[in-house]
Automatic annotation (TrEMBL):
InterPro entries: ProQ, ProQ/FinO, ProQ/FinO_sf. It comes from Zoogloea ramigera. GO terms for cellular component: cytosol. GO terms for biological process: post-transcriptional regulation of gene expression. Signal peptide: none annotated. Residues 111-138 form a coiled coil. Residues 12-119 form the ProQ/FinO domain. This is ProQ/FinO domain-containing protein. Keywords: Chaperone, Coiled coil, Cytoplasm, RNA-binding. GO terms for molecular function: RNA strand annealing activity; RNA strand-exchange activity.
């Protein structure tokens, strides 16, 4: 597909930011390949696709630039890229550090969530075992002192 030709998807068909992101990834290799995007690339997209809604484009760009694949590409990149794949501005050390920090925070939050889920599962299992033990004891007492 020619990167300067409007996509065949009508704006009425794009109802969410996630759908918009799918269209961007299909239309532009820099999105599909998770290359670091040029600053102001949203203006390039709107110039090529004026039919796109900005209220969907902005969150779609956010989903893309906060994705693990994009952040990994950013932390190792030396250049940003335009929609046509040509190099734009260089990626600064500060931008690479920011991407690395975002990745660390993401993985730390994931690890904390998994630990919390594991602790909750262990607590639920312990509670179930305690309840089973109470039930067993009550049944033993009932059979011992029950009328025959």
């Amino acid at each position: 597909m020619d990167n300067t030709t409007p996509n065949q998807t009508a704006p009425a068909e794009i109802r969410s930011a996630k759908e918009m992101l799918k269209v961007l990834r299909a239309a532009f290799p820099v999105f599909a390949e998770f290359k670091p995007l040029a600053i102001g690339i949203d203006k390039q997209v709107m110039a090529i696709h004026p039919e796109f809604e900005k209220k969907l484009l902005r969150p779609a760009m956010g989903f893309h630039t906060r994705s693990i694949s994009y952040l990994k590409a950013m932390q190792n990149a030396s250049n940003r890229f335009n929609l046509d794949g040509t190099p734009a501005d260089p990626v600064t050390a500060e931008q690479r550090d920011h991407a690395a920090q975002q990745l660390r925070e993401h993985f730390k939050a994931g690890a904390e969530k998994r630990r919390a889920e594991k602790a909750a599962a262990e607590a639920a299992a312990a509670e179930a075992a305690a309840e089973a033990e109470r039930t067993r004891k009550l049944e033993a007492l009932a059979s011992k002192f029950g009328r025959k």
